[in-house]
Design goal:
The protein is mainly β. It has one domain (3-198). The protein has one helix at 3-10, and strands spanning 20-21, 31-32, 37-38, 41-42, 47-48, 52-53, 58-59, 63-64, 69-70, 74-75, 80-81, 85-86, 91-92, 96-97, 102-103, 107-108, 113-114, 118-119, 124-125, 129-130, 135-136, 140-141, 146-147, 151-152, 157-158, 168-169, 173-174, 179-180, 183-184, 192-193, 197-198. The strands form 5 sheets. Strands 1-4-8-12-16-20-24-27-31 form a 9-stranded parallel sheet, with no helix packed on it. An 8-stranded parallel sheet has the order 3-7-11-15-19-23-26-30, with no helix packed on it. A hairpin with a 2-residue loop joins strand 28 and strand 29 (183-184). The longest helix has 8 residues, at 3-10.
């Protein structure tokens, strides 16, 4: 599907309960949504061989990327997800940036695979943020991240050098079976937890 046609469909005014159905599409070229106000969209099962640039975009409705394959860079830095952001079972073949992104609903990355780095530095999660059984490789950073609705990482694997400096977790923190390199992940290791931590 042509990236320009997708862009045109997504800049339509958002209406509660409606979304654009783009399940299982293959995007023919890089998709540029940077800085745009976007209506709700379901990209479940879609393929982005050349990646996506949603830097600073505002996802006003649902934003579902379940089972998506990103062959190129996935840039969501500074984006705002006003509702639930679902990235379960996503494959990131190149670098993935969620630096200073706001997740105002839940942020789900369950079983996601990050093959070439993940940047979540300075992100804020207002709802629960989940990396259940996710696998992260390459340069990975959460420095300054704040999870107001809790942090769930049961069974997740992080590289040994993953940066958790100055993270803050409000609510439940669940890191059982989570690994940082070859060692159990203790979180927050260099930050603050204000609720219960299960490790």
């Amino acid at each position: 599907m042509d990236p320009a046609a997708i862009r045109d469909a997504l800049v339509a005014p958002w209406r509660h309960g409606r979304h654009v159905d783009l399940r299982d599409v293959t995007v023919d070229g890089p998709l540029d949504l940077a800085g745009l106000d976007l209506t709700g969209v379901d990209f479940s099962g879609a393929r982005f061989p050349s990646g996506i640039d949603a830097t600073g975009a505002r996802f006003l409705g649902l934003a579902w990327f379940r089972g998506v394959e990103f062959g190129g860079p996935a840039r969501f830095g500074g984006a705002v997800f006003h509702n639930d952001a679902r990235f379960e079972d996503v494959r990131f073949a190149r670098d993935a940036s969620f630096r200073q992104t706001e997740f105002r609903g839940i942020g789900l990355f369950d079983r996601a695979r990050f093959s070439a780095g993940a940047d979540f530095a300075g992100m804020v999660g207002f709802g629960n943020f989940s990396l259940h059984e996710a696998a992260l490789q390459g340069q990975t950073g959460f420095a300054g991240a704040e999870w107001l609705g809790g942090f769930w990482a049961d069974g997740a694997s992080f590289p040994a050098e993953a940066d958790f400096e100055d993270v803050q977790a409000h609510g439940r923190v669940w890191v059982r079976r989570a690994r940082r390199g070859n060692a159990p992940l203790g979180l927050p290791e260099t930050g603050i937890a204000f609720g219960y931590t299960y490790s």
